[in-house]
Amino acid sequence: MNVIYLHGFQSSANSIKGQLLRDFCRGFPDTEVHLPDLNAPPQQVMDQMSRLIETLDDVALVGSSLGGFYATQLVAKYHVPAVLINPAVRPWQLFRDLFSETALPYVVTDSWTLNDAQLTEMQHLAVCHIAHAEQLLVLLQQGDETLDYLHAQQFYSAEQAGCAMVMTEIGGNHGMDNFAEKIPMLLQFLADAVKNKRA
């Protein structure tokens, strides 16, 4: 199984959760973790992830925050299983509220500056409803200080979503500090989903 970890906004390929996932999977020779850098305009990220998915077999995704948004779009496109960690549902609105017009363009890294046109691009990428949502496991925490967990809970639990599972915990935070405890569960979910898809 090839697990692609999609990090969140203002994170990187060296994200803590991504490293925890890779370190855990070192003990499983049949599982390889890929940690791409997603600090780029939205369409570029989608193109990059599409190329990666198309070169690999038995792909599964783990996406955190903005990475969860991207993972949702990729599930719709490629029908691959995914685990979403406190995913952003409407990131373009979040960033507009956060930065307002006075803070855009916003320098994220030396190589990427977020602007209003990219937020519109992000909005156009978003699927209205979730195709193949039975391949999604969504992990939410009510203590998320960045995103309102109710937005994701409502979106991924909608009747038309048919989501495999939405798990909402009391407390916690946006980074999901107890992520390491959840790795065995999410890997089992992904492995089962990949196996079922292959069958």
Automatic annotation (TrEMBL):
<dbReference type="InterPro" id="IPR008886">
    <property type="entry name" value="UPF0227/Esterase_YqiA"/>
</dbReference>
<protein>
    <submittedName>
        <fullName>Esterase</fullName>
    </submittedName>
</protein>
<dbReference type="Pfam" id="PF05728">
    <property type="entry name" value="UPF0227"/>
</dbReference>
<dbReference type="InterPro" id="IPR029058">
    <property type="entry name" value="AB_hydrolase_fold"/>
</dbReference>
